[in-house]
Amino acid sequence: MAYPSVTAPYGLRPINSVDGKPYAGATRQLPIASTYNTPIFNGDIVALVDGGTIAVSGVTNDSTTSAANYTYGVFMGCQYVNAQGQTVQAQYYPGNAAATSAIGYIVDDPMAAFQVAVVFSNSVVTTVNQSIVGVNMAIDQGTGSTTTGNSGFGVLVATDNAGNAATLPVRAVSVIPETATGTNAFTEVVVKLNNPQILRPTAIDYAA
Question: Which residue from 87, 153, 97 is spatially nearest to 125, judged by alpha carbons?
């Protein structure tokens, strides 16, 4: 069976649990602030921010130093009310100019495993070999598509001797052999989120 080649990043796609259980489609519904005007694409990593709402995580190569870089989960679409007052089920959140009363669907299981494309820093798809398994990786935040609604997030090839940094936001747990371009050249890997917010002892701030 021929598999399609991976030509561009598409974000993080849940496929199963780190322990091998299949992904059952479970998500948590969390609001998006009416003042939030940044698009959120399907497959983007999001953070839980003050007020109990979600925002695109600023995570790239550091998931621990600030709330903007926290990883709460992965965005899987949303519901919002458009300018005509219609309730819309959407692949991506377009921003507050076009959407109100928005709710995002988030995969927040800290044991979730995600399929993701490997890229250079310019979002060009590249390959890694089997030795990537067990390595921590950085995130490249490419531009999402308003046509497909899909994320532009990918994972960056690890720098030699730098894959054990505790601040890196994801860890490779396996490779995807179906879309390999050679005997030991994999364009996609399976990752888990390191240090997800739901397990952090430090919480977000609170104001009644």
Answer: 153
Confidence band for 180, pLDDT divided at 50, 70 and 90: very high
Residue pair 13/45 in contact (Cβ under 8 Å)? The answer is no
| Residue 14 amino acid letter | P
The H helix count followed by the E strand count for the chain is: 0, 13
Strand partners, 31: 103
Q: β-pairing, 53-56 with 45-49?
A: antiparallel
Distance CA 116, CA 118 (A): 7
- Separation CA 1–CA 64 (nearest Å): 42
Residues near 42 by Cβ (< 8 Å), separated by ≥ 6? 11, 75, 76, 77, 91, 92, 149, 150, 151
**How would you class 133 by CB atoms within 10 Å of its CB: exposed for 0-12, middle for 13-18, buried for 19 or more?**
middle
Q: How many CB atoms lie within 10 A of CB 80?
A: 22
At 155-175, the pLDDT tens digits run 998 765 566 788 889 999 999
Backbone φ and ψ for 103, nearest 5 degrees, come out as -130, 130
Domains of the chain by residue range: 20-109, 111-197
- 155 with 169: CB under 8 angstroms? no
* pLDDT at residue number 80: 94
